[in-house]
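Entry for the shared binder. Reason: the reviewer on the internal report wants the predicted structure included alongside the sequence.
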Amino acid sequence: MPFFFGRRDGDRVVIEGADARHLARSLRARPGERISVVEPGALLSVRLVSVAADSVTGMVEASRPHDVEPSVRVTVGLALLPAAALEEALARCTELGAWSFIVISAARSVGRGARLERWSAICREAAMLAGRWHVPSVSGPIAVSELPADAVLLDRGAAEPLAALDLGSRSEATLLIGPEGGWTEEEAARFARRASLGPRNLRAPNAAAAAVAIALAGR
């Protein structure tokens, strides 16, 4: 059973909305069962008291420390991709520990249009699955010119591998994943910091997941 988010009042926890419906209908939870509820810094063992499609309530039976958030906050800048690829990247990177996302309208972007509500829902579901308490925010689409100048552009031709890039003293980092057609020369020229994930040509969701994993591996 996945982890859940709930509203806590003392030892009482209430789960509402889509999460309650998922528990009541899809998982067929019953009073007396135990579920895991995540809150900042703690994992709660909650015994269900009542289960309905609009509201599930339970009582906290145990609590233990749950420190799962990385010490460095990695923002992933994703060029607009076809819907399935973008959603896959959001889910994978959230599970791995990405802190936030910026969707970028690049010159060679194939995907079009903002679906912030859908993208945010995907991040929330992935965070719950992974047992995270932080749900990454998703903003954009924005132009390349609006991105921070110190962002790291992921470029297969870069001389330095991402694993060798010194992020040790930084509490935040922004990694940029280009569209399927790649960055234009003008777009790439805006960023002095470039790094490679290796000589292989990776699909954007795989490149994004690999970049987050590498950036967080030493932290």
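Summary line for the report: The chain has a mean pLDDT of 91.
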